[in-house]
Amino acid sequence: EMAANGSLTQEIADYLARVVRENVGSALIVGSSGAGKTTLLNALSLHIKDATQLAVAETFKELRLAHPYPLRAVARAELNTIYTRMRPDLILVGEVVSEESVEFLRAVALGSRAITTIHGASCLSGLVNLETLAVQYGKLDQHVARQWIARSIDLVINVDRAESGS
To answer: Is the pTM of this model over 0.85?
Structure first.
C-alpha cells in the first residue's frame, strides 16, 4: 500500500519486506515527529512470519500487529528480561527515547534481531541520537556505545514527510 501511494518505491518495499520476513537484520527507523516511523514499523510487521517468536516492548501501546502470538510488554524495564530469558527471534521496540536505548543495544549486540524507531533528521542523526541516549541514560562509554551500534545495526531507514503531508 505504501508503494502504491508513492511513499516508497516497490523495489524498496519488496526489499524491506524481505528483510523482515527472513529476519536477517536489525533496523533503526529514523525520522522527525509525524514522518511515519511507526506507520512504517506497523507496515513492516505485517511481513513477520507467524512462526517467528516475536517480542514487543513499548512505553505505551502504539504498534498494531497482525502476528498471532506476540509477547508484549508495555514497560521499558521488561526489555532486558525479554531478550535474556525469552530468547525471541525478533524484538520490536516501539520507540527509543531514553533508557530503553541501552537495552535495545544490548539485545542487538548479543545477537537478537530488533527493529525500533528513533527521532532524527537523517540516518546519521538517528545513529548519533541512539549513541547519545545510550551514553546519557545507560552511562555507557561513548566508544562502547559507538562500537555496539556499528556492530549491531544492519539497516537504517530514513523517513520524511513531504510538504503535502504524505
So the answer is: yes
